[in-house]
């Protein structure tokens, strides 16, 4: 797949390296490619326009507060029909979310209706994104987006990062990006509590054979009702 | 322990039944105890004033949008010195959070500075709250609060619900309640995606022996930087 990653920060470089190693044709898009060329390592750094023009999948790994302006400057026609994998979250200076009432993912989908926006990976540190097997157990990565085929494309890209099909949870439409982005407000205190940004989040379901203890709990809850 | 639970809804009743079964002296506090007496089952329903007066620990299990008004009506002196375990989250009519920029937990701590507010359990369905062993694996419950001894009290109450010490993660001060409450925006789409509100959330740490694959991922990320 031809992947154009917007942003040459830690996240963009980690994803670029991993997808390049998996055999994809990857470029990093920068507003100042001459200045940032060295940051790409094995991955070419080109202009943001060039990164988008050649891409089947555009990845938004720019700061969440700058993403809309950058994409708008490229123009809706340049993005039309493409899959836009949005992994960004915007923060205010005081650590709040820059989209408190909704999400960046929704904002981008609204601004670019002919682009197929998929939100994923934004609940994870960059190294966990590309090495889920480094965790001590299975963990969950989320998908949000209105277009099923675009989500299938992102599933394949997640698989190439090491995420098993079982670990991918499709939350539904792009409105559910809100939950992924707001998780940032829990991510940071968890990271501080455990002393590492490198952790995953596993959705743990009810035991298959709902246990006696659960029946007892249910009975206790009902008896108190 | 003497526990006064404000609210006779599903959550208050489930917690009341479970702590009563564990040997605590529990009452449910209602604004209309005559009308709601039958809802308590084995747990007495009393007025909100009486529930608070007799309690070592007050549990806020009222709707998050009504909590501040209710507690204010009881008066700060009635709550002074007590532990207030806040398990509520406030939602707007359109499914957003009623405290989008911060959290109910912080609001309550600010309104009642002589009360020791601890936020916990609000990331979980009521039956998972009282039966964590019903899940197919270990999961995490969070603590937020400014007073360490109040958090120790809540730890004991969590233990009595079945939460092992390993499963309790202290996030820090009450400001971290924000993360717990905002998780609601992810909780709901996850529940819809898996078809059940009964799930837990496990924080999955990096493997103890950081694996070769992780070293490779780190190397790949660095080589792209």
Please, could you describe this protein's structure?
Two copies of one chain form a homodimer. In chain A, strands 3-2-1-4-5-6-7-8 form an eight-stranded mixed β-sheet, with helices on both faces. Chain A has eleven helices and nine strands. Chain A is globular, with a radius of gyration of 19 Å. The model of chain A has no long low-confidence stretch (mean pLDDT 94). The N and C termini of chain A lie far apart (56 Å). By secondary structure, chain A is α/β, with parallel strands linked by helices. Chain A has a single domain, classed as 3-Layer(aba) Sandwich (Rossmann fold), CATH 3.40.50.720. Chains A and B meet through helix 1, helix 7, strand 8, helix 9 and helix 10 of A and helix 1, helix 7, strand 8, helix 9 and helix 10 of B. Strand 9 of chain A pairs antiparallel with strand 9 (199-205) of chain B.
């Amino acid at each position: 797949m031809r992947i154009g990653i917007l942003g040459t920060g830690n996240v963009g470089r980690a994803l670029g390296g991993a997808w390049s190693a998996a055999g994809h044709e990857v470029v990093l898009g920068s507003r100042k490619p001459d200045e940032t060329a060295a940051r790409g390592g094995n991955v070419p750094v080109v202009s943001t326009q060039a990164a988008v023009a050649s891409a089947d999948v555009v990845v938004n790994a720019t700061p969440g507060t700058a993403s809309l302006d950058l994409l708008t400057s490229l123009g809706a026609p340049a993005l039309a029909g493409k899959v836009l994998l949005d992994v960004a979250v915007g923060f205010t200076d005081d650590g709040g979310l820059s989209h408190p009432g909704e999400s960046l993912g929704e904002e981008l989908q609204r601004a670019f209706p002919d682009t197929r926006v998929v939100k994923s990976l934004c609940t994870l540190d960059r190294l966990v994104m590309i090495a889920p097997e480094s965790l001590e157990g299975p963990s969950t990565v989320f998908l949000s987006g209105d277009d099923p085929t675009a989500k299938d494309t992102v599933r394949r890209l997640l698989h190439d990062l090491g995420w098993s099909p079982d670990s991918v949870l499709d939350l539904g439409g792009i409105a559910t990006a809100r939950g992924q982005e707001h998780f940032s407000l829990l991510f940071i205190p968890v990271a501080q509590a455990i002393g590492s940004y490198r952790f995953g989040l596993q959705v743990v379901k009810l035991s298959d054979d709902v246990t006696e203890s659960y029946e007892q709990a249910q009975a206790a809850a009902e008896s108190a009702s």
